[in-house]
Amino acid sequence: MESSNTNPYDRDFALTRSPSQYIAYGALILLLLGAPWLVSDYLLSQATFILIYGVVGLGLMLLCGYTGLFSIGHAAFLGIGAYTEAALAAKGVPIPISMAAAAILCAVAGVIVGLPAIRVKGIYLAIATLAFCFIVEEIFVRWDSVTGGNVGRSVTPVPTYFSGLESGQQFYLICALVAILSTVFVLNLLRSPTGRALIALRDSEISAQSMGIPVAFYKSLSFALSAALTGVGGALYAHQIQFLTPDQFGVAQSIDLIMMLMIGGLGSVHGAFLGAIFLISMPPLIGWAKDFLPSAVAQSAGVQGFVYGAILVICVLLEPHGMYGRWIKIRTAIAMFPLYPVGMFRRQKAYLKSERA
pTM of the predicted model, to two decimals? Predict the structure, then answer.
């Protein structure tokens, strides 16, 4: 009889699949922490944005990718977290406490928004979250004393905690630490009974309910956790952008977040960060490519939207698993070469959807 130490099911409860992944992720963490001394200020600023959007992507991935609930209103949670951080930072509240307050406030808002998810789903849930986004954006416009309205509001910089580091380097390290902790939190959540209940809801709500899973509770919990992570990202976003206006947290921002997950890989933690890399790196690349385009095309206002839309359509048609799904197939093909299955690179569904009712 095999010992419990060799049980293959033990891998499902580990953070990584093999010891080599511990080495790879350890090297990645060391590279992240050493980036302030390795790259230029511009690249460090771009990396900071990637880490912030990666945290936000983890929150949205928890809701859309692992629970199967669709939201077009997550920019509202991003804005709530950002304005909460701006208000508390102006009063001198330390950033750990203000980020915790932003997460709690967003979690409460997430529970309120998650109430319609108990009875509606699909396009109807998307409309409900879209309405929430419009409502919150209008509140940001009208609540001048807190948000500054359409005029906007500046954000107090983060105090210097580490001597010998510039402000940009210090804030990058804060974002890196938050991103690492958020990733570990999500990975531990997914391998817990709560995470498995969320995945069961995604695959088949009827089957999950028949197994005794309280559907209403876990849907509300998923919204709360997703909103809390998005609020933490919003708090970091406020300090990085340093000036907030209500139009930064509209529907366009929500669509960018959805596109980030679709292209990065829906249903994978890696996909959140790969999508963030895509979202942050594309505008500079498009700006560089405009130098080689005819002036009539380069000066058109819709070039970036056209490129984003074309990439999203190609991704949906050819690789629903996104960038991370394609990397998994390539890595498997290289490992199995020349004996990989013939249909490995065919289009596949994002995940099993056994519910047909």
Answer: 0.86
Q: In this predicted model, what pLDDT tens digit does every residue of 10-52 receive, in sequence order?
A: 666 666 666 777 788 888 888 888 888 888 888 999 999 999 9
Helix (H) or strand (E) holding 154: strand 153-154
The number of residues making up the chain comes to 357
Of 115, 145, 140, the residue nearest 224 (C-alpha): 115
| Interval 248-278: pLDDT, tens | 888 888 888 988 888 888 888 888 899 899 9
Task: State the Cα–Cα distance between residues 183 and 286, nearest whole angstrom.
Answer: 30
- Let me know the angle formed at the C-alpha of 315 by 311 and 319, rounded to the nearest 5 degrees: 160
CA–CA distance from 355 to each of 68, 149, 202, 204 (Å)? Answer: 12, 45, 9, 5
Residue 321 is which amino acid? H
Alpha-carbon distance of 75 to 64, in angstroms, equals: 14
120 token code pair: 């509606």
Nearest-angstrom CA–CA distance, 268 and 273: 10
